[in-house]
Amino acid sequence: MDVTFLGTSGAVPTTQRNPSSIFLRREGDRFLFDVGEGTQRQMMHFSTGFDLSAIFLTHLHGDHVLGLPGLLQTLEFNDRTAPLDIYTPAGTTADVDNLLDATGTTPNFRVAIHDAPSGESIIEHDEYAIRTFETDHRTRSVGYALVEDERNGRFDRERAEELGVPVGPKFQQLHEGSPVELDDGTVVQPEAVVGDPRPGRRVVYTGDTRPTDTVVAAASDADLLIHDAMFADDRRDRAEQTGHSTARQAATVAARADAKRLALTHVSSRYATDATPLESEAVETFGDDAFLAEDGDSIEIPYPDGE
To answer: Cα Rg for the chain, rounded, in angstroms?
Structure first.
């Protein structure tokens, strides 16, 4: 699993930062979170490809959605035929429809726009879910968490052979949790050769938000928390007024959640020439696993146990 930061600026882009967009690849699935202006060009520039499985919008402010019509047109020009699902905060599906209608965006492939109410699993896969959580911005908004299921424990092949289990299908049966019967009638239970379940991975993206307890809960033990960090702490009042967080507040959320890594994003253009105060505040509060995301950064998300 890896994350590519396509756009890390606040509402006003800079020469170094595009408006908000995050690309997440998990094996064969490719997800896009927010689609700021120019996202399609960023996808080309940073070689993510256009084979999207779904799009998720945190809210409908322009710096998060105005790249959507152009992206859909590009997908059509690239001969996409597969349907595409777009998820948007509850009550905003008509607004997304209107945006596409206003720009004459009527691709030949099916586009389905879905409500994404907070506190629900909106995608359930065999190995993971994508869940929503409540955020606190100045409009209808929602955050997203990709949460993998627990994995089977490690299989002890040497022990299985010692117990007389023949190499082959019975190994898989045991690893998947089913007992097996040997030729002599002996029954081998899975717990005899399979270790404890291993945790999956969790990636959490807040979109624009003030710091909240719901974000802390959603980011509990996250392998990567991508959090709004629009201002340094000397502009905390401005962050509160505009529905954003400071870098220190984002770091406090990450620390409370016991997240493993924190990526700061949605950086105000006032820091266009020097954004080091944001990273410094986050590192001071959270530690060295906090970093300021830059456009084009690609971050691998390893399994918590290294396998």
So the answer is: 22
Q: Is the pLDDT of residue 305 over 80?
A: no
Catalytic residue among 34, 63, 208, 295: 63
- Encode pLDDT of 208-259 as tens digits: 999 999 999 999 999 999 999 999 999 999 999 999 999 999 999 999 999 9
- Other beta carbons within 10 angstroms of residue 133's beta carbon come to 21
pTM above 0.70, yes or no: yes
Residue 63 falls in the annotated catalytic set: yes
Residue 87: count of CB within 10 angstroms of its CB? 24
CA distance 162 to 274: 62
* 4, 71, 83 from 40: Cα distances, Å: 13, 5, 18
d(C-alpha 104, C-alpha 204), whole Å: 33
The answer to whether the CB of 182 falls within 8 A of the CB of 220 is: no
Q: Cβ neighbours of residue 132 under 8 Å, at least 6 residues apart?
A: 116, 117, 118, 119, 120, 122, 142, 143, 144, 145
